[in-house]
Amino acid sequence: MAETGSSPEAFSAETFSAQTFSAEAWARNAEAYEAIRTMPFNAELAAGTLSPARFRHYIVQDAHYLIGFGRALSLAAAKAPDPDRIVQFARGTETAIVVERALHGGFLRDYGIGPETFAGTPLSPPCDHYVSYLLATAYAEPYEVVLGALLPCFWIYAEVGRDIFARAAPRNPYQAWIDTYAGEDFAAAVAEMIAATDAAAAGAAPALRDRMHRAYTHATRLEWMFWDGAYRDAAWPL
């Protein structure tokens, strides 16, 4: 992976060509990804200097987010055009709810956050916005647009994870998080998601492909907002 992590070349070259939706989407949103990569939350996470309070806010909100993300993946499975894609998204749902929440659960225990405290913590404004957007898209939009909205969460997390892994400080207190999103298992899931999205886009009319791009761009913005909200301890004003 390039030092900046600003290109899709972290995945195999066979995954991409200049004509694929994924290559176009990455190029159109490269500036937004760079803003995410270099934002204070991720810079301090890599350095191991991110405050426990900020990471605590993030991990609680991300655990809430994964529930909504899993529901959106389930709806993608329901709309998938063939059995292989149904299985892919059903497995993605399991990963979001079971595997990733196991990682979050370890951090939640470390911070003394039990089930009642977690359940009593409301979704922050950025988390609520992101979950609401994904679920509305998954319910109301066609399969192709749903994949456009879901892809940034997979892809950006993998790229951020790889980038932070390459520059992480020794004995980083957040190493478990870094290792998960920089790992081969997650990279394989991301590559499958990219392939599914490109396959869906390949047969899409230009107007539908444009809607996929709008969904991808909006979800990318929401990725930035989510991390920024954790850094600022975003809460409802009323």
Automatic annotation (TrEMBL):
SUPFAM superfamilies from the entry?
Answer: Heme oxygenase-like
Q: Which GO terms describe its cellular component?
A: cytosol
Taxonomic superkingdom: Bacteria
Name the UniProt record assigns to this protein? Thiaminase II
* Organism, as annotated: Methylobacterium soli
- InterPro entries from the UniProt entry: Haem_Oase-like_multi-hlx (IPR016084), Thiaminase-2/PQQC (IPR004305), Thiamine_Salvage_TenA (IPR050967)
User: Can you give the residue ranges of the Thiaminase-2/PQQC domain?
Assistant: 40-232
Q: Which Pfam families match?
A: TENA_THI-4
